[in-house]
Write the structure tokens for this entry.
Amino acid sequence: MKKESQVIFDRNVIEFVTVAAEFCNFVEQAESKSRADVVDTLLKLLPLLYLKASLLPPCEVMGEEEPENYVTEETYEVLRLNLADILGDRDDYLDVFVSDMKYSDQPVARNISEDLADIYQDIKDFIFVFRLGLNETMHDALATCQENFRLYWGQKLVNTLRALHEVKYATLPSTETPDEL
């Protein structure tokens, strides 16, 4: 078995692919769910996605070409808008883990919907290439996804998780019940 085959068929990779596909499927179908259901499910999926990404075996890009992108700007924007609509007035949060914060006396506002769409974009591009079934491109897509996790979407995931926790468990006005969020 070639080196890339050993990595891409590793148990931790297969488990990551499974959770990543579940995350993508869920956010693609989120528009038909209530805010409470979306928040509750994401609070379970995101930690699992982070855990599975952190357990991936080390690998490096072997080919010279970038893996193919699947998520278009239009797909990204539709997904982001659907999530923003679901989250409504609870979509915004303050991000304290950005490098710009040390130079600013103003808080940096973020959107849960945008962060989720960013995470989705990287994960969906990875899943798309992985499903093609070509060992070298699967390996390179895994290496790219892993690098993006370290540099980009891993931090977005934990920030979004913190914001979603606030949406679910923050003190609610007396007219709202936890199921309504």
About this structure: The longest strand covers residues 92-95. The chain has a mean pLDDT of 90. Helices lie at 3-8, 11-28, 35-54, 73-87, 112-132, 135-169. The chain has six helices and two strands.
